[in-house]
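Hello, quick one for you while I still have it in my head. No rush at all, and the record is pasted right below.
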Amino acid sequence: MVKLSRIYTRTGDAGTTGLVDGSRVAKDAPRIAAIGEVDEANSAIGLGMALLEDGPEREMLARIQNELFDLGADLATPGKDYAPSDVVLRVVPAQVARLEQEIDRMNEGLAPLSSFILPGGTPAAAALHVARATTRRAERAAVAAAADVPLNPQALAYLNRLSDHLFVLARLVNAGGAGDILWEPGATRS
């Protein structure tokens, strides 16, 4: 368990931050940018959660928020050994598979898409669409970082699947898709 008695350490004042192995890198390094984007996605998910009633949707998002902290630790762990241990957090295939199962389960009751969906609807669905878009940005940052340093491929897969998860969840929260706002191509040209 992590125990923080002080929030500031002053160790980053020169523009560097520490990785899990104790090494230091520039705060603008691609790896750190990806970690920051994951943190932002996690915050956006928290906003979506705040707009939902207690229930299975909130429980899924609470689990995802915890996993995103693990994913951030995974991204902050240098090396090519992606096996988890008692002291090394790594995203594993079972976590990606669980997201896929949840997507399939949520999608079962939704009408097939007949158009692209504009982000919006209920406040909770709109917040989940922001979380989805933020997660896509986190995924792009992680892909860019993976071109620079080795990263766990399961972490990248998790982010990819998570944005799909948030899309389907936003539809579910939007009255089972009935509240979706459909794109009307060229509707305002005349």
About this structure: Residues 26-109+118-178 form a domain with the Hypothetical Protein Ta1238; Chain: A; fold (CATH 1.20.1200.10). The chain has a mean pLDDT of 93.
